[in-house]
Structures are given as structure tokens and as C-alpha cells.
Request: fold
Amino acid sequence: MINKDIIEAFTMLAKEKNIDRTNLSTIIEDIFMALIHKKYGEERENFSVIVNMEKGEIEIYQEMTVVDKVTDPVVEIHVDEAVKEYDDLEIGDAYVNILSPDGFGRRLINTAKQHMVQKIRDIERQTVFDEFSSKIGEIVVGNVHQIQRDQIFIHSANGAEFIMPKIEQLPNDRFRRGETIRGVITNVEISSRGPEIIISRADDFFLKRLFEKEIPEIEDEIIEVKAVKRTPGDRSKIVVYSSDRRVDAVGACVGMRGSRIQNIVRELNGEKIDIINWSDKPEILISRALAPAKPINLYIDEEKPYVVAVFEDEELPIAIGRNGQNIRLASSVTGYTIDAVKKTEYEGVQDESLYLDEIEGINKKYIEVLAKSEIHTSEEFLSTERTDILTLKGFGEKTVDKITGIIMEAVESKEANSAKEDNSELEASENEEPIFEEVDNG
Reply:
């Protein structure tokens, strides 16, 4: 029978594409409903299809009404025809006509097979999409299949295709066709070509996943990765914490003679990795994150959160790093905006700063308004455009002139006092009698 042949042909196709029997049954039902609509009209709703996969049968039912005068042969049957089948039927009764798939002809059956292929392709795409959508953030392995200027295509062992755009590759990555590579899934999208699985070697999460695979203590949840930030292919910082005092988080990540960290560094083509021991004390965490530079002082504002890190003059370039890399990574992994300054510059700023609330004669309400605009010192006030100050609440021309005069007088007074102190120190040093060590010449 043709219906058995159809099911066998469809079953073989479904096996090749790894489609289960339940899905196959639904697909065949949908296909034959499409054939019915093509043959009898889209508006017809008096048909139903049942597929019995076990018996290899397709049953098509056409529900009709018994009438004495047929106006629509698709939904009506003459009473004389109906009683030949069931002699107890009367006008107005329901009649079920059983259709054979043979009646659709070979041509329509071939069309059904084409529909079947398309349906299976859609299911395949959805299956791949569902599978890999749940794997975002996981590492996958595949072989380079095709290399293009702006992306490469990678095939996995189970037939899935991954795409790695140029921006997701390390700057020093050089791939050859057939080479095995690893990457982390960052996104899965459905396109006209099917599911597009985007993987990355430049993403911060790739480094985190490599640590999880290489360091058993992370998988066992003894060590926790608190934060990761990378400049892909160049330098990265990773903050780790051990919940077991007996386990050194940094030591475990480095491994015996650096074996563990070296495996990760090799995977990342020599990317330098700073492993930072986490601390709940911001000053300790920030100091560690700024390595290899060592700050001599930290001024922390928890609310912003913001830090001024003071370094010996010769240490500042190391703290900032090439193109600001070191301080940028440290800021990211600690959650603090870090400004690095030289010791001499910071001390100079501190000495010269004259805070407005220290100056007599300025009304407190004006100081509060200025503070809301981040104007706290005499220097900040005098360097702010006059037109900007005039836009502040309560500041008119006369008020600005008066406050400017008070500030200028205070600054001049402070400078005069500083000069007097310097002269006093100089005179004192000149008047000091030299102290000699007594030597007995005998």
C-alpha cells in the first residue's frame, strides 16, 4: 500500500536526521492536512488525519452531512449514497468518509516528501538552537573548516557549526584549516541560514571557564572566581577566593611549578595573567590588584566608589601600565574607579588646596550649592567659568563678585603666610651653629 511506503520512506529520512517518532507522526499529519487543503481548498475544516506509526497506516477522515440535494460534494453526501454504506442513516445525519492516501496521486506524494524535508530541516534548526542556547557560557571544541577575512567557521564532532568573528579572536591567533580550537559560546541566533552559534576566545568568560577546567578546586567549589577582566592576548587579572583556610587560592591556581597556569597561558598564546587573592578589605584588594606597582597610600571614597592611589614617582608608569592597561584592569576587577598620582604631585595639590568651608565670610548656603556642583576648593571655584557659576541657584553678579573677592583675599593671605614660613625656616637654618664631633688629637 502506498501509505505504508510513505511511512517507511519518511521513517528512514527521520532516522537519518535523528527525528523521534512522535515528531515524525505530527509532521506527516501536518503534511497531509496541507495536501488536503491544496486539493479541496484552504477553508475546508471537515478533514482529520491520524497516523499510526506502529501499523504503518495513514487514515484520512472526511466528515460530511447527509442531504437529499448535494450543493457542495466536499461537505455533503446524497442520502442514497450514504445508505449504501450505513442503511440506518437519514437526512441531516453525519457521515464519515474514509479516504485513501492513494487518492492524492504520486505527484502530491512527492510534494509531501519535499514538505517533509523542509519540516525536518526546521526541526533540526530548532533542536540545534535549543541545545546550544542552553550552553551559552560553556567551552566547545571544533576543527577549523573555513577561514575568511572577518570570521572563521568551525565544525564540531557532532556536526554543529560555530562562527568566530574576528573581534572574538585573540590578536595573535593564527589558524590553519583542520586545526582543533576551543572557544566559549557567547550567543546563539536564528538566521536565514539556520542557527548561528557565536564562540569567542577574547571574552572574559573564556578565561574563567579555562580556570574552572584546569583547577579542580574551582569545580569542587573550594575556590571561587570573584572577578575577571582581560585585555585579550595581552594581560588579564582574575580575583580568586578560597573558602578553606588550608587552601591557598593563588597557589592552587598557579599549580606545582606553575603547571596549571602555564596550560592556560599556552591556550591564550602567552597572555599574562595576574592572579589576585580576594579580600573583603578594599584597601588590601585594591593594592593587590594594582600589582606589579605598590601604592604608598590609598584615599578611598566608598560611596562613589572612587580611589586615589598615590605612588612613588618612578612607580607611576608601572601602575598605569601601557595605554592605561594595568589601572583599567584593576578598576574593573575591584569595582572602584582608580586614579593614580605621583607622590610629589599629590602632596603639592594637598598643600595648595584651600577648602571653601575653611574660608571665613562665605555663607554656608552658598558653600552647599557649590558642593553639589563638585566645587569644594578655592582652585576649583576660580577655575570654573563665571557663566557656569551664575547658573547656580542664588548666585547673581554681585554674589559672585563678593565670593570671588573673599576667596582671592584668602588665597593671597595663605600664600603670604607660606612665604613667611619658608623665610623663617631658611633664617633658622642659617643661624644654626655647626655641630662638630670632638676629636682628641692628643
In short: The first helix runs from residue 2 to 16. The two ends are 136 Å apart (CA to CA).
